[in-house]
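Whether sequence alone determines local backbone shape is best considered at the level of individual chains. When preparing material for the folding task, we compiled for one chain both its residues and its backbone structure tokens. The sequence in question and its structure tokens are set out directly beneath this paragraph.
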Amino acid sequence: MKLSKLGYAIAAIAIVIATFFPLPMLAAVPVSAIANAENSGSSFVSKAVERVGAAVVRIDTERTITRRIDPFFGDEAMTGLPQQQLLRGQGSGFIIDRDGVILTNAHVVDRADKVTVTLKDGRVFEGKVSGVDPVTDLAVVKISGSKNLPIAELGDSDLVKVGDWAIAVGNPFGLDNTVTLGIVSTLKRASSTVGMTDKRIDFIQTDAAINPGNSGGPLLNAQGEAIGINTAIRADAMGIGFAIPIDKAKKIYTQLARGEKVAHPYLGVQMVTLTPAIATENNNDPNAMFQIPAVNGVLVVRVLPNTAASIAGMRRGDAILEVDGEAIHDANQLQDVMENSHVAQQLQVRILRDGKDRLVTVVPKDLNS
């Protein structure tokens, strides 16, 4: 049975495609381009790292879990004896406030019982996780006991362009104070395309090496400003690294520092991008699950129960064309529109159903509720 393009798209909702783009070659950085920058004895890389390096920290975590072990065979068993196991982790972070506010990844400090922060100068502090937002993989850790700490200057990720220099600083594999250099390969790489369907991030993609332990460290521009937060999310990503744009962190880190939860407006549908070509192929397929309109927009594949979409009366097969007057062209755009709205905000959504235009009022719920 021949599958239509729609069939493949629907299947992609449940299947992570690991080969979504060709593996890029490692960038060759001309020595002359680095060493002769600004016609000085120091490279722009060393100057950038000098500017921010003291603010980059190593984060060590410990978490104790309890497992039940069979006393005779050592196998896990519900009736076995409880045994505690200590799990250790390591990552990076960077100080953004002189009173000790540190940005890092949520997965670096996930469920940690103990957090230890080590500065480049050797000072060690006990860290406290102030707030975690798993949806954007961002977290804030605070340290106390010292004033006037070194800080990293925050840049503007909206100004970043493909081809700009990218400098990753962190502690990969426990190797402290490691610097790697590359360029910005792509902007707005949707988290769904890199296998993170539970996140809402449009990554900066770079060929600067980002390995385990680099997570949470800064991605710098040529001026030494933090333009992103590195995240090692794919073990198979040889020559590819990803960073959360710093502007995303700017929007929510103060909430996390106060211990508040970050709300994420949620529509409540599974969806795929719709085009006339996809619709035509689907509608000509005798095995198609249903007929769909030949328009540009987003096709609702499933409406989840007790969500904003279900309450608004949306149905499988609806084509979403506009939200509050903004034309919708693909699924990633619709998710961005929802993320930039507000929980409990009334949104006017134009849909096409059974060949007729309809306007429905949708009131997004919080994804975490």
